[in-house]
C-alpha cells in the first residue's frame, strides 16, 4: 500500500484550474495552495480575518475590513490573467517540475483571461468608487445629495 503511494506520480497542475481558483477564490489564496506557494496560509488567514471583521459593522460596504479584502481579491484577478497568458514551458517549469511538457494552451485559457480581466476591472472600479463615496461622505462633500 505504501509502495503504491510512493510510486504514484504527482498530479499535473493545469493553467485553467489555477486561473479559475485565482479568479473566484483569490481573496482566500486558494490558487496559492493549488500551485504550492509558500505563505498560502497567511493569505488565507488574512482573507478569513477580513471576512470575519465585516460582521462588526451593520452595513457590509461601510466597513474598512471589506475594503482591505480588495487587496488579495485584485491580486487574484491579476494572477488569473497571468496564469492563463504565461507560456506553457514557463508554467510547467515553475509548477510541474520533472513532469515534462504537460500544459497545452488553447481557447479556454484565452477566454478565461478575458473574463478575468472583465470581472477584475468591474470589481476594482466598484472598490475604488466605494472608497471615494465613503471618504467624500465622511468629509461632508456629499451633504444634500441622495445616494
Structural write-up:
With 147 residues, this protein is mostly helical. It has one domain. Helix content is 67%, strand content 0%. It contains eight helices and no strands. α2 packs antiparallel against α6 (70-85), α2 packs parallel to α8 and α6 (70-85) packs antiparallel against α8 (107-139). The longest helix has 33 residues, at 107-139. It is elongated, with a radius of gyration of 20 Å.
Short description:
By secondary structure, the chain is mostly helical. The chain is 67% helix and 0% strand. It has helices spanning 2-7, 15-25, 30-35, 40-53, 64-68, 70-85, 88-95, 107-139.
Describe the protein's topology.
Layout: H1 2-7, H2 15-25, H3 30-35, H4 40-53, H5 64-68, H6 70-85, H7 88-95, H8 107-139
Q: What's the helical proportion of residues?
A: 55-70%
The SSE string, one letter per element, is HHHHHHHH
Number of domains: 1
Q: List how many beta strands DSSP finds.
A: 0
Low-confidence stretches: none
Shape: elongated
Sketch the major β-sheet. none
How would you classify the helix and strand content by structural class? mainly alpha
Distance between the termini: 64 Å
- Please state the oligomeric state of the protein chains shown: single chain
Cα gyration radius (Å): 20 Å
Number of helices: 8
What would the average pLDDT be, to the nearest integer? 89
Beta-strand portion reads: under 5%
